[in-house]
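User: Can you predict the 3D structure for this chain?
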Amino acid sequence: MRSATAFARIGVGMMILLLGLSMPGRAADMTAQNKQAKRAGMDPARLVTQYVEAMAAGKVAEWAAFDLGCLARHRQPGAPPDTDKVCWDDTMKAHRALVDDEPETGIFGAVGRGIGFGLIAETHRQADSWKNYPPGIFVSPAVVKETTPKITVKKVWPARSIAIQEKSNDPVAVRGTLVEVRVTYPDPLTAPLALKPGEVWWASGQIRRYGPVREVDVRFVVVSGLQKLGYVRDSAVVNEALTDAPQIPGARYGLDPDNIGRAFERPGAPSVEPSIKGGLVVGSARWWTKREAAEHFRAGLERAKHSSIRSDRLALLKRLLLIDPDEAEANRLLGTELFESFLDEGLKKSGMNAADKAVKRRLAELYWNIQAPTWRQELTAVTTGEEPAAEALYGAIAALEIVVNSDAVTPEIRRRLGALYRWNGDAEAALAMHEQLLKEATAADGTRRGALLSEMAWDRVQWLAWNRRYAHPWHDLARREAEQALELVEDPLDKMTAAQALLLLETLSLDRTPSTVQDRVRLVKHWHDRVPLPVGMVGVWAHLVGNDLVKALVPEGTEVTLPSPVRSQEVLDVAVHANPPTQDLLRVWEFDNEPPGSAPRGFLISDEVHGNRADWRIEVDPEAPSAPQVLTHHAVCSETDCVHALLTEEAAFGYVDVTVRLKLGEGHKGRAGIAVGEQNGKTIYAATVNPTMTEVAIHRIEQGRMKLLGTAAVKPKPGAWHLLRIQRENFAHLSRPRLALFFDGAEVLAVSDEPVQQGGRVGLISMGSGTAKFDGFRILKLVSNEPLSPAAAY
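Assistant: Here is the predicted structure, written as structure tokens:
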């Protein structure tokens, strides 16, 4: 029995046949009409070409003469004289709404593409945010700026009978012709942008790459036979963007087209499949490549160098780096601009100022030095576009890192990148950069050496203050560096900066005394007052004594109220990241669906040790946490520290949360636990527990050599099975990842002194002789822990 929908579709089809296709001599009439249209200069290809070129050029009257929506509005009683303009404005508004570039919370660098398209690559066709763009949008001035696209007709399909529908009226039969054109955007610096194929489209911390589109193929629908319906023209192009324009039933546009109907469709009306439909030819989009855009790139770079407006320079440089993200000169210019922008933000937030431009920049650097150890929400705002300081900081780091690895690097760029690392909380990377610069400085250049020593002292201050390390060898090192800097630099402002580092170091010392702190304050005040009056320095003293570390320790600080930075609501709200779609983030092995006696599928055994006997196999154990089966490892070793590992075949585990339940047999001589491997296959980090379940340890095993990284005593919960868990994590207050070990639900050990350079395979490990049982092995990819740059980006 046929459904009501089927009968409805048949009904529409029969109506079209009765109105259009049932006339005798149908083929002969089609030929005659097409020939007549061509003789009149209204063949579909020419009509679409004129329509598209008029739209791209903003010629409203010419465009409206070929637009079905505008022609329909002219038919309405009392149509105003400016109907063409109103129709144009409404169309442009609809186009802008479809490409509206709204910020996405929790994503750095993922948006900001400007006016352009979101997803048009074939690889993104099934994405939730895919939009069916109406064809006119690809040449619309609402999207395409400055440079008029080139239009080439590719194909014209034979005319056929179709239906169009006006508002709530019944469909009527007309002739329809599908015309495919190629739209070419001749300038990559003004072409609309779209997410490149292969880039992630979902909410993620990963930076997404948009690129300028070079060409797309688009199909337009031309309807003819309109004069018999009362139109002034017999042929026109369907305007799919206007909700009140005549449309082809079933042709829907916008976001989620399967669930969004046209405004004039009657409730309960059956769905209708369009017989022909305009829009993007999926798979036709092509992006500009570096080679193709080389000439435009060089010209754009010169324009950026000579532009007098910072916002224009930034926009142009960011566009250039979409074409070639690794180009050194463009990154140098962008990194410099963003560095200066970051300093300007510091001046705005602090209220510091000076008449001299160079002095203002040094004051801004001092402000960020003082702010770096604090809970600096102006840097932790995670909404793109929410906090200009954060955007400038992270953008400058990314750009200057590329420059540092190129021939365009200078000592000043390296110094600046080191300072950015410090302000971003990555003090160790900053210190490495500045220490190398000091090694390269000549002994005769005392002023430069003093400035670098001051930088190094501030690097250590940031780390000591952020981690609240009150007894650490870096205290003495930083104090000596600041004292040497104070002797070597000559400018009073530079001496004041070094003296301020000494003051903060004193506040962080365990053996500090009020008198010593006050002596340091007087030293800072001494050099503050010796900055020449013509410099016009204002607003500085309050930050020197009113910051978090000093304020409670000196009388001057208690009288100071500093301006509070604007607090981002996204930072205060714990739900800062959008809920991601279902992703392939979790791997689970319960070992219950594999044949007993065999090794588990999806793993590699790497425990072939001469003189040792070991095997991994599935066994039945009704007392297991997830009965009935477990993974068992039996080993007989001639050495107490022999290592047997079972690693996943997949080698794409970076930041992970790995858990397993394990049980060691009586008489086991050794350890067992979880292995986290690197991609080179030569290094394994082993998180293990001893047979009595009283001690955990983390070892680094490299080419058969074992090094203990850390150990901790633990108290097991009652029972034979225990839960072991290890995370490779990246916290905001750490400058590199660490391994955190949990036992029976509590964190008991973490190591960060050995860098975990990259992810790889994950698995299980056993050391020594005996029997170890494993159950409920799970690996979760911690996507949110992945840093946005080599430096910690939070």
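The longest strand covers residues 762-781. The chain has a mean pLDDT of 82.
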